[in-house]
Amino acid sequence: MILLCSNGLSSYELLQEAKKAMGGAGRAALVVTADPEYKEKNYHVERCCQEFAYLGLETDIFDLDAQPAGQLLQYGVVELIGGNPYYLLDSIRRHNAGDALRRIAGEGLLIGWSAAAMVLGPDLGLVDQYSPEMNRVGLTDLRALGLAQVRVLPHYSRFCTRFEDFEGRCRAYEQRHGCKVIRLNDGEGVMLEPEPRMVRLPMGVNVAGVAFHNPLIAASGTFGFGREYGQLYPLSLLGGVSCKGITIKERPGNPPPRVTEAPGGMLNAVGLQNPGVDHFIREDLPWLSKQGTRIIANVAGNAPEDYCQTVEKLNGTCVDMVELNISCPNVKQGGVQFGTTAQGVEGITKEVRKHCQKPLMVKLSPNVTDISEMALAAEAAGADAVSLINTLTGMRIDIRTHRPIIRNNTGGFSGPALLPIALRMVWQTAQKVKIPIVGLGGVSTWQDAVEMLLAGATALQIGTVLFTDPYAPQKILEGLTRFMEEQGVQSLSQLTGGVRPW
Ligand SMILES: Cc1cc2nc3c(=O)[nH]c(=O)nc-3n(C[C@H](O)[C@H](O)[C@H](O)COP(=O)(O)O)c2cc1C
Prior knowledge:
By secondary structure, the protein is an alpha/beta fold. It is built from 16 helices and 23 strands.
């Protein structure tokens, strides 16, 4: 079988397709030959190995320029990664690798992405119209392997925003050659069985112009910057990651104890411990940007200037969205002080909006009388979306010492017990604002996720559940997929706001 995609098995759906198609294979070969400059240093390699590990496959890096192509036949799964299609095609020809690839497609699973998806197709005509300058090997015969009888255009939406008249040129190509080009977005694919079948992203959602593969976003402060969870599964399983709240300067956070359990959840008063925005941009973002998931930078500060300076630093980065944290209950200055009056919300949002060139989402505090008023204020001040809810302020006391268990005395309460409150607040807010809502607070199962969408959320975040079950995202996605199939739901937007109040 052949699977063509844009950037590896970079979505829940593609991972599931590969799992079904790989049979009992135990080893995979990752062919890195399309990228002559990087080979195994290519940053995609780490992610691809991780995707295979998630499928239970051991990975060998394979270089056609250095190893006999016949050795590929030992592998049940072979993945050709992207790079320079001319170089890859030339190399396959020079090393007579075409036959081995044909046999793997017949007997096992052959995955080709980006440049390789084109090389497995009929010819390189399409890439020649967009990027002829890549033909540094001087190929004149642009006929490709023809193992796949479809022409794909990878990274479609991404390239539409990057290159002038990308769609127009594609249409002109189709007309000139009397053919159909499959426009593939990252995370999508075409499975040839051998007839082509599209692998789409039925759980895909759009929040303020940002397309997420699915609605599941890791909540700020419960996922760090993703590296630890990235050892458990590919982060591309998630629609996005909201990073730990970052500030203009590094912060040590509050003294311990900073967390404790509570019935139905937990209390935390971490106090925005983080390495500062410069460190985030230098050390964390480069890694995160290669994981095939959307990145939300959660921004906090002591004063409006701090927020503004921080978002300005993020403007030139690959962060997809900024989440303005004006709802942290655990710091003395900043945080929730901006988030508990409509005037405060409007003021800080307006100020930050002037400096923020990214889609701006304002995260609201539940520690208010009417959260929908705060959402309206954020919307009026130019927010593109709101996320709700942050933690509810709580307290626990040691009955022997009479001391609060949390050193900060109070902390933010999160976890399953929050769900009904969060649902009520999302529902009330959805009736007031036009901008999209990202719902969170206690979401732990796929059923909770469906409720959150029905209440009015376009996407959702999960936080505390990750501490008790780091694999919760996968379980929620499995459940959502089954639910959509059972109920005949084509797109999750059909569920958003679908609650039928009495
Ligand atoms: C340990 C911990 C740290 C958190 N840190 C942040 C943070 O830095 N910024 C933020 O906006 N929210 C932070 N939150 C709040 C969560 O993002 C989320 O709003 C809250 O926990 C409710 O969702 P949940 O019940 O799914 O955990 C934190 C929560 C926890 C438990």
